[in-house]
Design goal:
This protein is α+β, with helices and mostly antiparallel strands. It has 23 helices and 12 strands. It folds into 3 domains: about 210 residues, no CATH class; about 140 residues, no CATH class; about 160 residues, no CATH class. The protein starts with a helix and ends in a 13-residue tail after the last helix.
Protein backbone atom coordinates (compact mmCIF):
# COMPACT_ATOMS: atom_id res chain seq x y z
CA UNK A 1 0.00 0.00 0.00
CA UNK A 2 1.40 3.38 -1.03
CA UNK A 3 2.24 5.89 1.72
CA UNK A 4 1.04 9.45 1.06
CA UNK A 5 4.26 10.98 2.35
CA UNK A 6 3.26 14.58 1.64
CA UNK A 7 0.19 14.19 3.85
CA UNK A 8 1.80 12.15 6.61
CA UNK A 9 5.12 13.99 6.93
CA UNK A 10 4.88 17.55 5.59
CA UNK A 11 3.86 19.17 8.88
CA UNK A 12 6.83 20.34 10.96
CA UNK A 13 7.62 18.46 14.15
CA UNK A 14 4.90 15.84 13.79
CA UNK A 15 3.94 12.91 11.60
CA UNK A 16 0.73 10.98 11.09
CA UNK A 17 0.17 7.24 11.35
CA UNK A 18 -2.98 7.03 9.18
CA UNK A 19 -5.79 4.54 9.64
CA UNK A 20 -4.96 2.85 6.32
CA UNK A 21 -1.51 1.89 7.65
CA UNK A 22 -2.62 0.62 11.06
CA UNK A 23 -3.94 -2.72 12.16
CA UNK A 24 -4.36 -4.56 15.43
CA UNK A 25 -0.64 -5.38 15.34
CA UNK A 26 0.45 -1.77 14.77
CA UNK A 27 2.07 -0.05 11.79
CA UNK A 28 2.18 -1.51 8.28
CA UNK A 29 5.55 -2.56 6.86
CA UNK A 30 5.16 -0.04 4.02
CA UNK A 31 4.73 2.84 6.45
CA UNK A 32 7.50 1.58 8.72
CA UNK A 33 9.89 1.56 5.76
CA UNK A 34 9.11 5.20 4.93
CA UNK A 35 9.41 6.17 8.59
CA UNK A 36 12.82 4.50 8.81
CA UNK A 37 13.96 6.31 5.66
CA UNK A 38 13.12 9.66 7.19
CA UNK A 39 14.87 8.83 10.50
CA UNK A 40 12.46 10.93 12.58
CA UNK A 41 12.46 8.43 15.44
CA UNK A 42 14.78 5.71 16.68
CA UNK A 43 14.76 2.17 15.33
CA UNK A 44 13.13 1.07 18.59
CA UNK A 45 10.06 3.29 18.07
CA UNK A 46 8.19 0.90 15.81
CA UNK A 47 8.86 -2.12 18.02
CA UNK A 48 7.51 -0.39 21.11
CA UNK A 49 4.57 1.25 19.29
CA UNK A 50 3.51 -2.03 17.68
CA UNK A 51 3.71 -3.87 20.99
CA UNK A 52 1.72 -1.15 22.77
CA UNK A 53 -0.95 -0.98 20.05
CA UNK A 54 -1.28 -4.77 19.97
CA UNK A 55 -1.45 -5.05 23.76
CA UNK A 56 -4.11 -2.37 23.99
CA UNK A 57 -6.12 -3.96 21.16
CA UNK A 58 -6.04 -7.40 22.77
CA UNK A 59 -7.00 -6.08 26.19
CA UNK A 60 -9.88 -3.96 24.86
CA UNK A 61 -11.15 -6.93 22.83
CA UNK A 62 -11.05 -9.15 25.91
CA UNK A 63 -12.85 -6.61 28.09
CA UNK A 64 -15.53 -5.93 25.45
CA UNK A 65 -16.17 -9.65 25.14
CA UNK A 66 -16.34 -10.14 28.91
CA UNK A 67 -18.61 -7.17 29.53
CA UNK A 68 -20.03 -5.70 26.28
CA UNK A 69 -22.31 -3.27 28.13
CA UNK A 70 -19.36 -1.71 29.94
CA UNK A 71 -16.69 -1.57 27.23
CA UNK A 72 -16.42 -0.64 23.60
CA UNK A 73 -14.30 -2.89 21.40
CA UNK A 74 -11.07 -1.44 19.98
CA UNK A 75 -11.05 0.61 16.80
CA UNK A 76 -8.51 2.24 14.53
CA UNK A 77 -7.81 5.98 14.59
CA UNK A 78 -5.34 8.37 13.00
CA UNK A 79 -2.35 8.73 15.33
CA UNK A 80 -0.52 12.07 15.29
CA UNK A 81 2.96 11.63 16.77
CA UNK A 82 4.53 14.83 18.14
CA UNK A 83 8.32 15.08 18.09
CA UNK A 84 8.70 18.26 20.18
CA UNK A 85 6.80 18.01 23.47
CA UNK A 86 6.40 21.78 23.78
CA UNK A 87 5.58 22.66 20.16
CA UNK A 88 1.78 22.94 20.36
CA UNK A 89 -1.13 22.89 22.74
CA UNK A 90 -0.83 19.43 24.30
CA UNK A 91 -4.55 18.71 24.01
CA UNK A 92 -5.20 19.59 20.37
CA UNK A 93 -6.82 16.95 18.16
CA UNK A 94 -6.37 17.34 14.40
CA UNK A 95 -9.40 15.31 13.26
CA UNK A 96 -12.14 15.48 15.85
CA UNK A 97 -13.28 12.06 17.01
CA UNK A 98 -10.98 10.26 14.57
CA UNK A 99 -7.49 11.02 15.84
CA UNK A 100 -5.33 10.86 18.92
CA UNK A 101 -2.18 12.83 19.71
CA UNK A 102 0.77 11.16 21.42
CA UNK A 103 4.47 11.94 21.75
CA UNK A 104 7.28 10.06 20.05
CA UNK A 105 8.80 9.76 23.53
CA UNK A 106 5.80 7.60 24.54
CA UNK A 107 7.29 4.84 22.38
CA UNK A 108 10.98 5.13 23.13
CA UNK A 109 12.44 2.61 25.64
CA UNK A 110 14.38 5.32 27.50
CA UNK A 111 11.27 7.39 28.18
CA UNK A 112 8.43 4.87 28.28
CA UNK A 113 7.39 1.22 28.24
CA UNK A 114 4.93 -0.88 26.25
CA UNK A 115 2.25 -0.57 28.92
CA UNK A 116 2.79 3.15 29.43
CA UNK A 117 2.60 3.73 25.66
CA UNK A 118 -0.64 1.75 25.44
CA UNK A 119 -2.09 3.71 28.36
CA UNK A 120 -1.25 7.04 26.70
CA UNK A 121 -2.91 5.93 23.46
CA UNK A 122 -6.04 5.06 25.39
CA UNK A 123 -6.03 8.27 27.45
CA UNK A 124 -5.64 10.31 24.27
CA UNK A 125 -8.71 8.64 22.76
CA UNK A 126 -10.76 8.96 25.96
CA UNK A 127 -9.80 12.62 26.27
CA UNK A 128 -11.52 13.30 22.97
CA UNK A 129 -14.70 11.76 24.39
CA UNK A 130 -14.61 12.93 28.02
CA UNK A 131 -12.99 16.38 27.53
CA UNK A 132 -11.48 16.26 31.05
CA UNK A 133 -8.09 14.91 32.05
CA UNK A 134 -9.32 13.11 35.16
CA UNK A 135 -12.25 11.50 33.34
CA UNK A 136 -9.96 10.32 30.54
CA UNK A 137 -7.43 8.87 32.99
CA UNK A 138 -10.05 7.05 35.08
CA UNK A 139 -11.84 5.74 31.97
CA UNK A 140 -8.47 4.19 30.99
CA UNK A 141 -7.95 2.42 34.31
CA UNK A 142 -9.58 -0.87 33.23
CA UNK A 143 -6.64 -1.42 30.88
CA UNK A 144 -4.24 -1.04 33.80
CA UNK A 145 -6.39 -3.18 36.08
CA UNK A 146 -6.34 -5.96 33.46
CA UNK A 147 -2.52 -6.12 33.43
CA UNK A 148 -0.70 -8.83 35.31
CA UNK A 149 1.66 -7.81 38.11
CA UNK A 150 4.68 -7.63 35.81
CA UNK A 151 2.76 -5.49 33.31
CA UNK A 152 1.65 -3.13 36.07
CA UNK A 153 5.26 -2.83 37.22
CA UNK A 154 6.39 -1.99 33.68
CA UNK A 155 3.67 0.65 33.37
CA UNK A 156 4.91 2.29 36.56
CA UNK A 157 8.48 2.24 35.26
CA UNK A 158 7.42 3.86 32.01
CA UNK A 159 5.44 6.50 33.92
CA UNK A 160 8.54 7.32 35.98
CA UNK A 161 10.66 7.71 32.83
CA UNK A 162 8.22 9.75 30.73
CA UNK A 163 9.14 13.26 29.58
CA UNK A 164 5.62 14.27 28.55
CA UNK A 165 4.41 17.74 29.62
CA UNK A 166 1.84 15.99 31.82
CA UNK A 167 4.29 13.44 33.20
CA UNK A 168 3.09 14.11 36.74
CA UNK A 169 -0.35 12.76 35.78
CA UNK A 170 0.97 9.35 34.69
CA UNK A 171 3.02 9.14 37.89
CA UNK A 172 0.00 9.96 40.04
CA UNK A 173 -1.93 7.13 38.38
CA UNK A 174 1.06 4.79 38.79
CA UNK A 175 1.23 5.62 42.51
CA UNK A 176 -2.52 5.03 42.91
CA UNK A 177 -2.60 1.81 40.91
CA UNK A 178 -1.31 -0.65 43.58
CA UNK A 179 -4.10 0.35 45.96
CA UNK A 180 -6.69 0.02 43.20
CA UNK A 181 -5.39 -3.35 42.06
CA UNK A 182 -5.46 -4.61 45.64
CA UNK A 183 -8.86 -3.29 46.72
CA UNK A 184 -10.91 -2.08 43.71
CA UNK A 185 -12.70 -3.95 40.92
CA UNK A 186 -13.62 -3.47 37.29
CA UNK A 187 -16.49 -5.01 35.38
CA UNK A 188 -15.21 -7.82 33.21
CA UNK A 189 -12.20 -8.41 35.46
CA UNK A 190 -13.01 -10.91 38.16
CA UNK A 191 -16.18 -10.81 40.25
CA UNK A 192 -17.42 -7.24 40.84
CA UNK A 193 -18.84 -6.71 44.36
CA UNK A 194 -21.99 -4.79 45.22
CA UNK A 195 -23.53 -3.41 48.37
CA UNK A 196 -23.39 -0.31 50.55
CA UNK A 197 -19.65 -0.57 51.13
CA UNK A 198 -18.79 0.03 47.46
CA UNK A 199 -19.24 2.83 44.95
CA UNK A 200 -18.76 3.19 41.21
CA UNK A 201 -16.41 5.90 39.98
CA UNK A 202 -18.61 8.07 37.77
CA UNK A 203 -18.21 7.51 34.04
CA UNK A 204 -16.11 4.35 34.47
CA UNK A 205 -16.51 0.64 35.17
CA UNK A 206 -14.35 1.00 38.29
CA UNK A 207 -15.93 -0.12 41.57
CA UNK A 208 -14.13 0.89 44.77
CA UNK A 209 -14.54 0.52 48.52
CA UNK A 210 -15.96 3.80 49.77
CA UNK A 211 -12.91 4.42 51.93
CA UNK A 212 -10.79 4.63 48.75
CA UNK A 213 -12.74 7.72 47.70
CA UNK A 214 -10.40 9.85 49.78
CA UNK A 215 -7.46 8.45 47.77
CA UNK A 216 -9.08 8.97 44.37
CA UNK A 217 -10.57 12.45 44.76
CA UNK A 218 -7.24 14.28 45.28
CA UNK A 219 -5.79 12.50 42.23
CA UNK A 220 -8.74 13.54 40.08
CA UNK A 221 -8.50 17.12 41.31
CA UNK A 222 -4.76 17.24 40.63
CA UNK A 223 -5.10 15.72 37.14
CA UNK A 224 -7.54 18.45 36.12
CA UNK A 225 -5.47 21.17 37.75
CA UNK A 226 -2.35 19.87 35.99
CA UNK A 227 -4.11 20.00 32.61
CA UNK A 228 -5.14 23.58 33.33
CA UNK A 229 -1.59 24.53 34.34
CA UNK A 230 -0.16 22.99 31.17
CA UNK A 231 -2.68 24.87 29.03
CA UNK A 232 -1.89 28.13 30.82
CA UNK A 233 1.84 27.58 30.33
CA UNK A 234 1.21 26.99 26.62
CA UNK A 235 -0.72 30.25 26.28
CA UNK A 236 1.99 32.11 28.19
CA UNK A 237 4.61 30.87 25.72
CA UNK A 238 2.37 31.88 22.85
CA UNK A 239 1.94 35.40 24.24
CA UNK A 240 5.68 36.18 24.01
CA UNK A 241 6.51 39.01 21.61
CA UNK A 242 9.82 39.29 19.74
CA UNK A 243 11.98 42.16 20.99
CA UNK A 244 14.29 42.32 17.98
CA UNK A 245 11.69 42.66 15.20
CA UNK A 246 8.59 44.65 14.34
CA UNK A 247 5.50 44.13 16.48
CA UNK A 248 2.92 41.55 15.33
CA UNK A 249 0.45 44.37 14.76
CA UNK A 250 2.91 46.17 12.50
CA UNK A 251 3.80 42.95 10.68
CA UNK A 252 0.13 42.32 9.94
CA UNK A 253 -0.40 45.85 8.68
CA UNK A 254 2.65 45.54 6.41
CA UNK A 255 1.39 42.22 5.08
CA UNK A 256 -2.08 43.59 4.37
CA UNK A 257 -0.73 46.65 2.56
CA UNK A 258 1.86 44.67 0.60
CA UNK A 259 -0.18 41.61 -0.37
CA UNK A 260 -3.77 42.94 -0.38
CA UNK A 261 -5.08 39.43 0.43
CA UNK A 262 -8.51 38.61 -1.00
CA UNK A 263 -10.15 38.04 2.39
CA UNK A 264 -12.09 40.06 4.92
CA UNK A 265 -11.26 39.88 8.62
CA UNK A 266 -14.10 39.86 11.13
CA UNK A 267 -14.49 39.89 14.89
CA UNK A 268 -16.24 36.93 16.50
CA UNK A 269 -19.43 39.05 16.41
CA UNK A 270 -19.14 39.52 12.66
CA UNK A 271 -17.92 43.11 12.54
CA UNK A 272 -15.55 43.63 9.58
CA UNK A 273 -12.19 45.10 10.61
CA UNK A 274 -10.39 44.64 7.27
CA UNK A 275 -11.50 44.62 3.64
CA UNK A 276 -8.96 44.77 0.78
CA UNK A 277 -11.18 47.28 -1.00
CA UNK A 278 -10.71 49.60 1.97
CA UNK A 279 -6.97 49.01 2.20
CA UNK A 280 -6.14 52.30 3.90
CA UNK A 281 -8.34 51.50 6.91
CA UNK A 282 -5.82 49.66 9.09
CA UNK A 283 -6.53 51.00 12.56
CA UNK A 284 -9.53 48.74 13.18
CA UNK A 285 -7.60 45.53 12.47
CA UNK A 286 -4.62 46.75 14.55
CA UNK A 287 -6.96 47.38 17.47
CA UNK A 288 -8.63 44.00 17.03
CA UNK A 289 -5.34 42.07 17.40
CA UNK A 290 -3.66 44.37 19.94
CA UNK A 291 -1.28 42.49 22.23
CA UNK A 292 -1.08 39.34 20.09
CA UNK A 293 2.06 37.22 20.56
CA UNK A 294 4.70 36.74 17.88
CA UNK A 295 3.78 33.13 17.01
CA UNK A 296 0.02 33.74 16.80
CA UNK A 297 0.74 36.86 14.75
CA UNK A 298 2.73 34.91 12.16
CA UNK A 299 0.11 32.16 12.20
CA UNK A 300 -2.68 34.65 11.55
CA UNK A 301 -0.88 35.96 8.48
CA UNK A 302 -0.39 32.39 7.24
CA UNK A 303 -4.12 31.68 7.67
CA UNK A 304 -5.06 34.79 5.70
CA UNK A 305 -2.64 33.79 2.95
CA UNK A 306 -4.27 30.36 2.68
CA UNK A 307 -7.75 31.85 2.32
CA UNK A 308 -6.61 34.39 -0.25
CA UNK A 309 -4.86 31.63 -2.22
CA UNK A 310 -8.00 29.46 -2.22
CA UNK A 311 -10.08 32.38 -3.51
CA UNK A 312 -7.56 33.02 -6.28
CA UNK A 313 -7.59 29.32 -7.17
CA UNK A 314 -11.37 29.27 -7.43
CA UNK A 315 -11.78 32.52 -9.33
CA UNK A 316 -9.00 31.51 -11.70
CA UNK A 317 -10.46 28.05 -12.37
CA UNK A 318 -14.17 28.76 -12.88
CA UNK A 319 -15.43 30.76 -15.86
CA UNK A 320 -17.36 33.83 -14.75
CA UNK A 321 -16.88 32.97 -11.06
CA UNK A 322 -16.86 36.61 -9.96
CA UNK A 323 -20.42 37.13 -11.18
CA UNK A 324 -22.00 33.90 -9.90
CA UNK A 325 -24.84 34.42 -7.40
CA UNK A 326 -24.13 33.77 -3.72
CA UNK A 327 -26.43 30.98 -2.41
CA UNK A 328 -27.52 32.71 0.78
CA UNK A 329 -29.81 29.78 1.69
CA UNK A 330 -26.93 27.28 1.60
CA UNK A 331 -24.10 29.34 3.11
CA UNK A 332 -24.44 30.60 6.66
CA UNK A 333 -22.31 33.50 7.80
CA UNK A 334 -20.67 31.78 10.75
CA UNK A 335 -18.36 28.98 11.80
CA UNK A 336 -15.07 30.85 11.80
CA UNK A 337 -14.59 30.91 8.02
CA UNK A 338 -17.51 31.76 5.76
CA UNK A 339 -18.43 33.48 2.53
CA UNK A 340 -19.59 36.99 3.34
CA UNK A 341 -22.78 37.51 1.37
CA UNK A 342 -22.42 41.25 0.74
CA UNK A 343 -18.61 41.49 0.44
CA UNK A 344 -18.40 38.38 -1.80
CA UNK A 345 -15.14 37.31 -0.16
CA UNK A 346 -14.22 34.72 2.41
CA UNK A 347 -14.40 36.10 5.93
CA UNK A 348 -11.92 35.02 8.61
CA UNK A 349 -13.20 35.46 12.14
CA UNK A 350 -10.71 36.21 14.91
CA UNK A 351 -12.28 33.39 16.91
CA UNK A 352 -12.32 29.97 15.25
CA UNK A 353 -14.12 26.81 16.38
CA UNK A 354 -11.57 25.05 18.59
CA UNK A 355 -8.91 27.73 18.07
CA UNK A 356 -8.36 31.26 19.32
CA UNK A 357 -6.05 32.78 16.66
CA UNK A 358 -5.26 35.73 18.92
CA UNK A 359 -3.98 33.47 21.72
CA UNK A 360 -2.13 30.69 19.91
CA UNK A 361 -0.61 29.66 16.63
CA UNK A 362 -2.61 27.19 14.60
CA UNK A 363 -1.76 23.53 15.26
CA UNK A 364 -0.68 21.04 12.59
CA UNK A 365 -3.23 20.14 9.89
CA UNK A 366 -5.24 23.28 10.67
CA UNK A 367 -4.36 24.98 7.38
CA UNK A 368 -5.14 21.88 5.36
CA UNK A 369 -8.59 21.88 6.92
CA UNK A 370 -8.84 25.65 6.51
CA UNK A 371 -8.17 25.42 2.78
CA UNK A 372 -10.68 22.58 2.37
CA UNK A 373 -13.37 24.47 4.29
CA UNK A 374 -12.74 27.61 2.24
CA UNK A 375 -12.90 25.78 -1.10
CA UNK A 376 -16.07 24.02 0.01
CA UNK A 377 -17.67 27.43 0.58
CA UNK A 378 -16.68 28.65 -2.87
CA UNK A 379 -17.74 25.37 -4.48
CA UNK A 380 -21.29 25.93 -3.18
CA UNK A 381 -21.32 29.09 -5.29
CA UNK A 382 -20.41 27.03 -8.34
CA UNK A 383 -23.08 24.44 -7.55
CA UNK A 384 -25.68 27.19 -7.34
CA UNK A 385 -24.39 28.44 -10.69
CA UNK A 386 -25.01 25.05 -12.33
CA UNK A 387 -21.42 23.81 -12.58
CA UNK A 388 -22.15 20.38 -11.08
CA UNK A 389 -25.35 19.10 -12.73
CA UNK A 390 -26.66 15.60 -13.21
CA UNK A 391 -24.72 14.26 -16.18
CA UNK A 392 -26.93 14.38 -19.31
CA UNK A 393 -26.31 10.70 -19.94
CA UNK A 394 -27.43 9.81 -16.39
CA UNK A 395 -30.68 11.78 -16.05
CA UNK A 396 -32.83 8.64 -16.32
CA UNK A 397 -30.52 6.76 -13.98
CA UNK A 398 -30.84 9.56 -11.40
CA UNK A 399 -34.57 9.02 -11.02
CA UNK A 400 -34.11 5.25 -10.78
CA UNK A 401 -31.30 5.67 -8.25
CA UNK A 402 -33.57 7.67 -5.93
CA UNK A 403 -36.29 5.05 -6.25
CA UNK A 404 -33.75 2.26 -5.64
CA UNK A 405 -32.58 4.00 -2.49
CA UNK A 406 -36.17 4.25 -1.23
CA UNK A 407 -36.67 0.52 -1.83
CA UNK A 408 -33.37 -0.24 -0.12
CA UNK A 409 -34.39 1.61 3.04
CA UNK A 410 -37.83 -0.07 2.96
CA UNK A 411 -36.12 -3.48 2.82
CA UNK A 412 -33.95 -2.60 5.80
CA UNK A 413 -36.90 -1.33 7.86
CA UNK A 414 -39.06 -4.36 7.03
CA UNK A 415 -36.25 -6.75 8.00
CA UNK A 416 -35.50 -5.18 11.39
CA UNK A 417 -35.64 -7.63 14.31
CA UNK A 418 -38.87 -7.46 16.30
CA UNK A 419 -37.19 -5.90 19.34
CA UNK A 420 -35.95 -2.96 17.21
CA UNK A 421 -39.25 -2.35 15.40
CA UNK A 422 -41.04 -0.20 18.03
CA UNK A 423 -38.27 2.41 18.21
CA UNK A 424 -37.92 2.38 14.43
CA UNK A 425 -41.65 2.95 14.01
CA UNK A 426 -41.51 5.83 16.47
CA UNK A 427 -38.59 7.38 14.59
CA UNK A 428 -40.34 7.01 11.24
CA UNK A 429 -43.56 8.55 12.60
CA UNK A 430 -41.59 11.57 13.83
CA UNK A 431 -40.01 11.91 10.40
CA UNK A 432 -43.39 11.69 8.67
CA UNK A 433 -44.74 14.39 11.00
CA UNK A 434 -41.98 16.74 9.84
CA UNK A 435 -42.48 15.79 6.20
CA UNK A 436 -39.29 13.77 5.82
CA UNK A 437 -38.76 10.33 4.35
CA UNK A 438 -35.77 8.17 5.16
CA UNK A 439 -34.53 8.15 1.56
CA UNK A 440 -34.67 11.96 1.50
CA UNK A 441 -31.89 12.27 4.11
CA UNK A 442 -28.94 11.38 1.84
CA UNK A 443 -30.68 13.19 -1.03
CA UNK A 444 -30.76 16.39 1.04
CA UNK A 445 -26.98 16.23 1.45
CA UNK A 446 -26.22 15.98 -2.26
CA UNK A 447 -25.58 19.70 -2.55
CA UNK A 448 -22.61 19.23 -0.22
CA UNK A 449 -21.45 16.26 -2.26
CA UNK A 450 -21.66 18.30 -5.47
CA UNK A 451 -19.60 21.06 -3.86
CA UNK A 452 -16.94 18.56 -2.85
CA UNK A 453 -16.97 16.98 -6.30
CA UNK A 454 -15.75 20.32 -7.67
CA UNK A 455 -13.49 20.98 -4.65
CA UNK A 456 -11.70 17.69 -5.37
CA UNK A 457 -10.45 19.20 -8.63
CA UNK A 458 -9.26 22.44 -7.02
CA UNK A 459 -7.76 21.24 -3.73
CA UNK A 460 -4.35 19.72 -3.17
CA UNK A 461 -4.60 16.00 -2.26
CA UNK A 462 -3.41 16.71 1.31
CA UNK A 463 -6.21 19.24 1.82
CA UNK A 464 -8.85 16.81 0.57
CA UNK A 465 -7.51 14.01 2.78
CA UNK A 466 -7.60 16.24 5.84
CA UNK A 467 -11.20 17.22 5.06
CA UNK A 468 -12.26 13.58 4.73
CA UNK A 469 -10.61 12.53 8.00
CA UNK A 470 -12.42 15.33 9.81
CA UNK A 471 -15.82 14.65 8.24
CA UNK A 472 -16.07 10.86 8.16
CA UNK A 473 -16.23 9.89 11.80
CA UNK A 474 -17.94 7.68 14.35
CA UNK A 475 -21.49 8.76 15.21
CA UNK A 476 -21.82 6.31 18.09
CA UNK A 477 -22.34 9.01 20.71
CA UNK A 478 -24.50 11.30 18.54
CA UNK A 479 -28.04 11.91 19.87
CA UNK A 480 -29.60 10.77 16.58
CA UNK A 481 -32.12 8.03 15.90
CA UNK A 482 -30.80 4.72 14.60
CA UNK A 483 -32.31 5.08 11.11
CA UNK A 484 -31.33 8.72 10.71
CA UNK A 485 -27.81 7.82 11.76
CA UNK A 486 -27.70 4.96 9.26
CA UNK A 487 -28.71 7.34 6.46
CA UNK A 488 -26.08 9.82 7.60
CA UNK A 489 -23.38 7.16 7.69
CA UNK A 490 -24.35 5.99 4.19
CA UNK A 491 -23.93 9.51 2.84
CA UNK A 492 -20.87 10.73 4.78
CA UNK A 493 -18.84 7.61 4.02
CA UNK A 494 -19.04 8.52 0.31
CA UNK A 495 -16.24 11.04 0.87
CA UNK A 496 -13.81 8.17 1.43
CA UNK A 497 -14.41 7.01 -2.14
CA UNK A 498 -14.42 10.60 -3.42
CA UNK A 499 -10.97 11.23 -1.93
CA UNK A 500 -9.54 7.93 -3.16
CA UNK A 501 -8.73 6.60 0.31
CA UNK A 502 -7.19 3.13 0.16
CA UNK A 503 -9.83 0.46 0.87
CA UNK A 504 -12.60 2.88 1.94
CA UNK A 505 -14.85 0.19 3.40
CA UNK A 506 -12.11 -1.10 5.70
CA UNK A 507 -11.28 2.46 6.77
CA UNK A 508 -14.93 3.10 7.56
CA UNK A 509 -15.89 -0.03 9.47
CA UNK A 510 -12.67 -0.32 11.48
CA UNK A 511 -12.74 3.27 12.72
CA UNK A 512 -16.40 4.05 13.44
CA UNK A 513 -17.97 1.19 15.44
CA UNK A 514 -20.47 0.86 12.58
CA UNK A 515 -20.35 -2.96 12.54
CA UNK A 516 -20.72 -3.10 16.31
CA UNK A 517 -23.67 -0.72 16.27
CA UNK A 518 -25.56 -2.19 13.31
CA UNK A 519 -24.27 -5.61 12.29
CA UNK A 520 -23.44 -7.15 15.67
CA UNK A 521 -26.90 -6.08 16.90
CA UNK A 522 -28.48 -7.74 13.83
CA UNK A 523 -30.13 -4.54 12.61
CA UNK A 524 -28.72 -5.44 9.19
CA UNK A 525 -26.01 -7.60 7.69
CA UNK A 526 -22.71 -6.27 6.39
CA UNK A 527 -23.77 -7.30 2.87
CA UNK A 528 -26.96 -5.21 3.16
CA UNK A 529 -24.96 -2.28 4.56
CA UNK A 530 -22.61 -2.43 1.56
CA UNK A 531 -25.64 -2.53 -0.75
CA UNK A 532 -27.10 0.55 0.95
CA UNK A 533 -23.85 2.46 0.67
CA UNK A 534 -23.70 1.41 -2.98
CA UNK A 535 -27.22 2.75 -3.57
CA UNK A 536 -26.19 6.15 -2.17
CA UNK A 537 -23.02 6.02 -4.29
CA UNK A 538 -25.15 5.39 -7.39
CA UNK A 539 -27.10 8.57 -6.62
CA UNK A 540 -23.89 10.57 -6.07
CA UNK A 541 -22.30 9.21 -9.23
CA UNK A 542 -25.03 10.78 -11.36
CA UNK A 543 -23.41 14.18 -10.86
CA UNK A 544 -20.39 15.45 -12.76
CA UNK A 545 -18.49 18.72 -13.03
CA UNK A 546 -19.26 20.63 -16.24
CA UNK A 547 -15.68 20.82 -17.54
CA UNK A 548 -16.70 23.31 -20.23
CA UNK A 549 -17.12 25.93 -17.50
CA UNK A 550 -13.64 25.45 -16.09
CA UNK A 551 -10.69 27.46 -17.29
CA UNK A 552 -8.29 25.11 -19.07
CA UNK A 553 -4.81 25.23 -17.58
Amino acid sequence: MVVDASFCFDEDGIFLLPIEHLDSDGVSDDFAAVLAERALVSDAFRTLFDAAFHDLWQTQSRLAKASPDAYLPPRLFNVAVVLDVHAWHPYFRPFEGMSVVVYAADFEPKTSSVEHGAYQLLVAERLGQAKRASAAAFASLPYLMALDDEGARRFAEGARRTTRPDAEGARLVADLLPRLRERAFCEGIGEAPSGPGFARVRGTSLIIPRELTSDIQPVAKRLDALASEISCAHYERQAVRDLDSSSPEEALREYLVREQPMVVIATKDGDIVWDPREASALQAVSDAIAGIGAKPGRSLIADLSVLSSVTERFLGAVEGAASLPIPVHALEQGGGVYLHHERRLLAYALEQPGLSPLREAAPPYHRLLLAARAMHEWAHVAVEGGLVPVAPAKEALFGRAHADLARMFARIVNALPSEAAPLADQELRAMRDEGTRLEDLPFARLEDYRANLLARRLLRPQELHAYVRANVRSLLGEPVGTLRKLARYAYEAQYLWLAGVDDPWRYFVRSTYFLDEYVATKLLTEAVARELFGAVAQLCDCYEVDATRLVSS
